[in-house]
Specification:
This protein has 187 residues and is of the alpha+beta class. It has 2 domains: 61 residues, no CATH class; 70 residues, Translation Initiation Factor Eif1 (2-Layer Sandwich). It is 30% helix and 19% strand. It contains 4 helices and 8 strands; from the N terminus they run ααββββββαββα. The strands form 3 sheets. A 4-stranded antiparallel sheet has the order 5-6-8-7, with helices on one face. A two-stranded antiparallel ribbon has the order 1-2. It has a two-stranded antiparallel ribbon with strand order 3-4. A hairpin with a 5-residue loop joins strand 7 and strand 8. The longest helix has 22 residues. The termini are far apart.
Length: 187
């Protein structure tokens, strides 16, 4: 004889009220994380790993504060801080790390030219970074507008820096014009 089917038991989040497996799509996933770690650790194993990593970081910070953290000797070996010869550890090169382990490079002044397509046919060419070379953006937009017989204006970009928007697809032609007009700018 066939077994009688059992009803499905659904675990609902105590914070947002959604089923636990849908909390990540809810409005307050950050608030739900502690509850999920305690009540449903098998649904989100990445949260458990992150929590363990944070605890390990806190422990290593406490060890560094007390002076028992390992210090690198430069040859790959390490000694604990109490056994060091009293010389301060060499300063590590200060580099800004971004999420995902990427390293942010020092910004070099450069001109960036982008083509943005709107309404499937119309294009806008944006020129960013001319002001880093001492070029007045108002004068540059006038010259670009005259050269290509199109509208050009100085606008604030998404990063709150000024850029030049030129109507039309002139991305390839504007490179030659900029290098001829202002030879010291790097594209």
């Amino acid at each position: 004889m066939a077994e009688k089917p059992e009803p499905v038991r659904v675990l609902y989040c105590g914070v947002c009220g959604l089923p636990a497996e849908y909390c990540e799509f809810g409005p307050d996933f950050e608030k739900c994380k502690p509850w999920l770690l305690q009540h449903a650790p098998d649904l989100y194993p990445d949260l458990v790993k992150d929590a363990n990593a944070k605890e390990a970081d806190k422990l290593s910070d406490k060890l560094k504060a007390t002076g028992f953290a390992p210090v690198s000797t430069g040859d790959g070996a390490s000694t604990d801080g109490a056994a060091s010869s009293g010389a301060p550890a060499s300063k590590e090169e200060e580099v800004k790390r971004l999420p995902g382990g990427k390293i942010k490079k020092k910004e070099k002044p450069e001109v960036i030219i982008e083509k943005v397509v709107r309404n499937r046919r119309k294009c806008i060419t944006t020129v960013k970074g001319l002001d880093l070379f001492g070029i007045k953006l108002g004068d540059a937009s006038k010259k670009l507008g005259k050269k290509f017989a199109t509208g050009a204006s100085v606008v604030k970009g998404p990063t709150e820096k000024d850029q030049i928007d030129v109507q039309g697809d002139i991305a390839y032609d504007v490179v030659e014009f900029i290098t001829d007009t202002w030879p010291d700018s790097r594209l």
